[in-house]
Amino acid sequence: MTFKFDKLYRLGAWGAAACMVAICALIALQVTFRLVDALLVLVGLSRLGLSITGVSEIASYLLVGATFLGLAYTFVHHAHIRVTLLITRLPSAIRVWFEVFGLIIALVISLLLSYGLVGLARESLQYNDVSSGFVSIPLWIPQLVLATSVALLCLALAEALYMALRIAIRDPSSFREATAPDDSEGY
């Protein structure tokens, strides 16, 4: 399958990667500060006391961003876990309709989740909700990242559903297993 919005899904994957790099940088910086303090104490000097306030809280929000921003990309590149033990034994003409049914269920659940997350972010923005940790982070920021990520997944699911329906209606016997990589991807 060729996805029209693949560049958008790749942008989400780059956002996920940026979150992971930011987590690594924050943790490395925090460890470096502690090592400098330990070395200073070791040589008989006083600590500098450098630290990043709320690093674990910030890292946890970045981890959620890294996880969710990659959803659409991993879906379109067939990296999500799928249990196909039973449907692989079915003929292609029947298997494509199972694929359509599964995509409809996934899209409905994702749309409901996206709608709820947008409402949650809107409510947090309206009431100026902030996190309760050391750093007061406005909660609408991570919630907006979640809503955007799930909306990207909804777009990818809708695109896959459209393609599966086209195959199911036009030529169901030509349906290829969704977990098989495209030949054009060079696997």
TrEMBL record:
It comes from the Bacteria. The chain crosses the membrane at residues 12-33, 58-76, 96-120, 140-165. Its main location: membrane. It is found in: Cell inner membrane. It holds the Pfam family DctQ. InterPro entries: DctQ, TRAP_DctQ. Keywords: Cell inner membrane, Cell membrane, Membrane, Transmembrane, Transmembrane helix, Transport. Residues 44-165 form the Tripartite ATP-independent periplasmic transporters DctQ component domain. It is a multi-pass membrane protein. The complex comprises the extracytoplasmic solute receptor protein and the two transmembrane proteins. Belongs to the TRAP transporter small permease family. Part of the tripartite ATP-independent periplasmic (TRAP) transport system. This is TRAP transporter small permease protein.
